[in-house]
């Protein structure tokens, strides 16, 4: 009986040591709906295209192979893409090596990010 309790205790300790995602509303899958280019007053609708960001722990990925790290501090989001998607601008990355966004809106269902070049509008998927 002691062996069974010891095995269950060890199994519980191993499974309880997983990292917790503490990103709050930022964590999850986001669909890019719209890109507004500030330099030329152009709006690019993306709601009919499959452009997704996945955010978990300190990692960000796109649905076509883009991978990077991010840091969310207050109303700022800093992203460094280590592997860029084929067309970074179609995902809102105009400076993928060192992207900085102001977080204009972040709720459980909507997110609006703004950089010097663009305003990105997302909805939670």
How many individual β-strands? 9
What fraction strand? over 45%
- Round the Cα radius of gyration to an integer and report it: 18 Å
Reported for the largest beta sheet, the result is: 8 strands, antiparallel, barrel
| Element string (H = helix, E = strand) | HEEEEEEEEE
Could you name the CATH class? Mainly Beta
3D structure, described in words:
- This protein has 125 residues and is mainly β.
- It has a single domain (22-124), classed as Lipocalin.
- It has one helix and nine strands; from the N terminus they run αβββββββββ.
- It has one helix at 2-15, and strands spanning 28-37, 42-45, 52-56, 59-62, 67-73, 76-83, 99-106, 110-114, 118-124.
- The protein has an eight-stranded antiparallel barrel with strand order 1-3-4-5-6-7-8-9.
- The longest helix has 14 residues, at 2-15.
- It is globular.
């Amino acid at each position: 009986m002691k062996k069974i309790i010891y095995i269950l205790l060890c199994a519980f300790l191993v499974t309880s040591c997983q990292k917790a995602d503490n990103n709050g509303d930022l964590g999850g899958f986001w669909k890019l709906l719209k890109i507004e280019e500030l330099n030329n007053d152009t709006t690019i609708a993306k709601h009919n295209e499959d452009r997704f960001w996945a955010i978990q722990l300190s990692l960000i990925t796109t649905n076509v192979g883009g991978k990077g790290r991010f840091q969310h501090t207050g109303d700022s989001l800093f992203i460094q893409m280590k592997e860029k998607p084929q067309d970074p601008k179609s995902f809102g990355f105009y400076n993928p090596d060192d992207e900085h966004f102001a977080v204009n809106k972040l709720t459980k269902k909507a997110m609006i990010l703004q950089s010097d070049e663009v305003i990105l509008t997302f909805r939670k998927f």
